[in-house]
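Data card: per-record layout.
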Amino acid sequence: MDFKEQLKSSVDIVKVIGEYVRLRKSGVSRYTGLCPFHSEKTPSFSVHAGHQFYKCFGCGASGDVLKFVMEFEHVSFPEALKLLAERNGIPMPKRAEYADADTRLRAAVFQIQELAEEAFREQLAGPAGTEARRYLDKRGVAPEVSAQFGLGYAERSGRSLLRLLEKQGFTAEQLENSGLLGRRDDGSFYDRFRNRLMFPIHSESGKTIGFGGRALDPADEAKYLNSAESPIYKKSAVLYNLHRAKEGIRRADRSVLVEGYMDAIGVSAARVREVVASCGTALTAQQVQALRRHSDKIVVNFDPDAAGANAAERSINLLLDENMHVRVVELEGGLDPDEYCKERGADAYRGKLDKAQTYFYWLADRARAKFDLRTAEGRVAGFQFLLPAIQRLPDKIERVAVANDVAGYLGVDAGLVLENFRKAAMDRRDKKVAPVREPLRADEKILLNLLVSDEEARQELIPELEQLPAVEQFATRRIFKALFALHAGGTVTFEELHARLEESDQELLASAVLQDETNGSAVSLSLGVECLRSLERSSLKAQVAALKAQVKAAERSGDLHEALRLADELRHLEKAG
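The structure for this 577-residue chain is written out next.
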């Protein structure tokens, strides 16, 4: 067994994928959840524990545990091997085929992040970090919290990190791709972060992939600065603290979205474990989808200033587009989440979260502030401002109820509500509905699940099935033929069978084995034998009917010799049955 197969046989695909996607058991060996590879409102992503395979019936993504890690983490095959091996304590062989150029570059960039994090932490603890420590103390960040979040300090010189990395022997290509260094026109490098409090940014699996730096000098033009994008860091795909928060999000069945690093740290220190931050950048669909895999409920708590309110408004529309259930918290006293937790206490903040209002009340208050509701024009403008967010609600009854409620709140005529929703309903009717595939026969699904899963069943049933004409009538006949060929060659696995098929038959196989509630673990050999005997009886009846038709045709044509021969064959067939 090569290392790839050894690794796959040692890890549980459900456990691995379950770290990224909230999976629910929906069969003996089947789990379902929201697909991590495309945006969807209802789960079409299926993971089969027995076959160690995943399949999305929405976007078509499929594969084994290594393919999942490669696609989700955006890493190469060797990197996926290494990641899974390290996570499961399996020694990784040192072989040339596991070290292509791209993999070596990414490995070097990961190593640079680790060295940088260690250096920044040392600098924070040393004499140069006095000002940064003073700032943390002023913000009420205890040393143990600072250590938990890996906070550090980048020195003023602009060459401290560069000297360290050059001493370690990294190439110019690796330094340039680190995201931590800038390059001058003459080709020389310099530290991107200077005199800044440093916040490590992690992938969802917990690896350091970049940094955010807060300026300590008020004269610095950019208050916050992030790593440049690199082979391992894409800021539009990352949420700060998600690697720590995802378990808390699942337990609480909600996420709490704040604006910045300090808010996330302060709220987390107040024992609200489900908090993430947008790192000062506009929220993206990819980030929302990452949250929705763990819970479709979210509480938005941005800073109370105008910039925070505008960011919250933009985020709400995006969250609704991704079918999130949105609530909004407003904190009194002009306090941001971190300040509120420290001044009013963790219990008071958690109480605010628990009592957070549905987003449309917050938006309605925004409309009242933006438009003059004393005039008919202002009331209509306010309603039009709210309408897109209301129309994003997936449930028709809830949409109408909310619209009427908000219209009453703003003093808008109910007729305007009905007119707008009538137009929206007409637009929805114009959308095409995807065709539904005709379901497979029960006996072919049972046999297919059994033969894919059970070696004993293959040994007993395949020799007879290969001779059975009824199999040719199956919608899955090409799948059965491929399965017969694999069996003749030795081992049969779902993955090997899937790889042999054309795309249309791969979909059929997946729908029969991964999507359907029937699966190999629940199907017995005796049920398979019963299906086989039923097919044999059906085949016999079909042959008898065909021979009877041929006898009558021979008699009508006057060919008595042929009619007698066929009649004799018919008697033998009926006797055998």
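Known properties of this structure: The chain has five domains: 3-98, 101-233, 242-355, 364-429, 442-576. Residues 32 and 289 are 16 Å apart (CA to CA).

See the next section for split statistics.
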